Amino acid sequence: MQAPTIIPLPSEASRKPGDPAHKPSLWQQIYANRWSYIYIAPMVVLVLAFTIYPIFASLGYTLYQWNGIGDPSMFVGLDNFRRAMTDPIFWESFQHTFLYTLVQVPVQLALALVLALVLNNPKLRFSTFYRSIYFIPAVTSSAIIGVVMNLMIGNFGDNLNTLLLNLHLIHEHIDWLADPRFVLWIIIVIGIWNTLGYNLVYFLAGLQTIPTELYEAAKIDGANAFAQFIYITIPMLRALGLVILFLAILGSLHVFDLVQVLTGGGPYFASEVVSTYIYHQAFGSFIAAGAPTQPNIGFASAASFFYGVILMVITAIQALAIRESRRRRP
Amino acid sequence: MNVSRMNRRHFLQTAAATTLGGALAACGSTPSSSSSSSSSVVTVNYWDLLVSQAPFIDNEIKLFELAHPNIKVKKTTNLYNTYDNLLMLAFKSGNEPDVFMSSTNSTPLNVQVQKGWLLPLDKLADNWKQRFPANSFVEGNNTFNGHIYTAPFSGHAPWLQMYIHNGLFKDAGITNADGSVKIPRTWDDVTLAAEAITRKGNGNVYGIGFGGGGGGDPQARMLELFVRGAGSPGGAYDKDLRVGKYTQGTDRNYQDFINLMLDWKQKGYFYPNSASISDEISRAYFEKGRYGMLPGGVWNQVEWTQHNFTDYSLTTVISPTETPKAYFYYTPGSSMWAASARTKHPDETMAWLDWLYSPEAGKRWTQQFNEDLSIYPQNNDPKQIKFAPFAQFVGLSSFDLLGPDPYTRNPLNSQVVINSVSPNIGDVMTGIYTGQIKQGDIASTLMDLQGRYQKALDSGIDQAIAKGVKVSHDDWFFPDWDPTKDYVTKPQTS
Lengths: 330, 494
Fold this sequence. Notes:
The complex is a heterodimer of chains A (about 325) and B (about 500). Chain A is about 70% helix and about 0% strand. Chain A contains 14 helices and 2 strands, in the order αααββααααααααααα. In chain A, helix 6 packs across helix 9 (about 185-210). Mean pLDDT of chain A is about 85; it is low at about 1-15 and about 285-290. Chain B has about 500 residues and is an alpha/beta fold. Chain B contains 17 helices and 13 strands. In chain B, strands 1, 2, 3, 4 and 12 form a 5-stranded mixed sheet that branches. A 4-stranded mixed sheet of chain B has the order 8-9-7-10. In chain B, strands 5-6 form a two-stranded antiparallel sheet. In chain B, a hairpin with a 2-residue loop joins strand 5 and strand 6 (about 145-150). Chain B is globular. Chain B starts with 7 loop residues before the first helix and ends in a 28-residue tail after the last helix. The interface between A and B is large, with 42 and 52 residues.
């Protein structure tokens, strides 16, 4: 068989290394890839308008005490940042958010991986049905889940208590959503269940990209299922797993709707997370008869910006750690 | 227009015009008023926030449209706890309704006037000043620079009551010699009733219940209901104007009631899920006889009436002693509805406002729909009210006295912006109830709360003074006030 001959294109053949006259300009490069830019343009515009711009626009508000109506006029300098940094409720919310992430992410990812392994088994019958069942909570609005759970655990919590009392699992009636010992853990459990489906699907997709030949070869070499999992599945899922991990961490750090609907951050801030804290500061709290909390966009912007900086630092440390671990890998 | 005298052709014309106007209004994209191009029907957009008053409002719209066939009122009922934000954002974006329930949660009325948002009701002023009771319009309250912008609608009665489930009280033997329910008047009465009902209920029925889920502050409301009669006229939320300061930490009555509340909780008198059930569910559970007492307002009655549940009584200002040492207080003025200065149809808008604020609407509000007392005293005769529990409520008006008013004394106080504090009394009372604030920390927490409330007031006054507004800390100090009597505030002379 004759080897194929590669004939250089005239332009490439005549180009000399380091000859700037033949290097395409930025505009030529953009034009050459115009369809790529056209396709990503809507997303870029949306991100610029609704993510980047608000971040910088709100920076100015951090220097004012402002309720969001009219133009900000009461300049307070960096006082909003000082208040946010010294507010124990902010740090309590911060702790709750990180506890939520620390528990929810590993438990959910482990469960999702185990379920994905089970559902990826070609011998499993009705696997499509099971996939749908596990994915349904993920496509249901967190707010709706919050409302339904609130009805089940809070408003009609007698039934749950009666069941648990009859089973001798508890010895006294517990007001689950108003008990500071349990409320955050209930939210974590619901949070795990709610978004489990996404990670399950991601892992399932990842598992299906692993060539079956690898498993067949390992079997021939005498590897058992556990060894196959450790030496084939885990390494082959590493790249995708990192993406899933990042997405799960970011998602859990932004938990909001479930908490807001289920408990509103209560009782007495026992389930307040940073997102609900910022929301309550920005838009005020419930119009109680005599004790409303007035909105303060300035303070909320400062707290939000401060939290953003903390998250960026954490993300940078995380990225550095991952890069370091990759560098050390033989 | 006399409906009975409408002929068929006129009726069809009116119906067609109304339907067309409605259809065009429905197609419109902005909430501002609109009129059809082919007829003279004008749509006035109206925003409400109280589902409980929907039967009254809907009836008024029906009657108003019959009387004004050229005007259609399009009502939008917004979510209660986001209403203030929605209204303020609507103003900011120029999409506010023509007529709306006024809200001052984030922006005081004087600031709304300064921004040019509110329509001065000058055309109605002369008529209103004649027909409303004295002291209804107060400079700095609902009148600014001599222009009326809004008016009071409800009469004066304590905004909180304790509802008594007659059936459960009778079952527990809490009755008078004649067999009638013995209404609790004192803290001890409530304790005894709660104990008897809880004991009789045997784990299924409790003495007291409330709805703490959904962001309300029922424990603070309980404090409000019980601490006033002990001699703390500021109640849970306000300052004691005898000293011009907040006193939640230094006044012993607050800690005393809190101790009593914790004692009730420890003894199991409260329905155990009270802190997480919603206000609506708490109302339904009371109706179903899950607990014997429910602190709440007259808004509860509307739903119970719809369900034909009438076997309850009510009381208020529950005190440690038979005779209360302080009461609820009202101040002259107040507001209910207002109109947008940017309305495209000021005449029709004012016609709808005038209708809502009329003595006839007030009569229906009180006597037909039993929503609340009317600002017009002639509507508040208990003999004219057929529904017994509501007549009882009307009878409680003697527990609401005329109190001192810093804004009447010095209208410039409306320019004092008092920022809210967080955690507030509602948060703190929740924390105490759930045990998050330990028994040993309650006194220091109340002192801290008092200090923060006081700082917010003092800062607001100081900032106003710094801006050149002629106000003073003494404007809030009424040393000659006897909380057991009406107090007429005299305007500052200099």
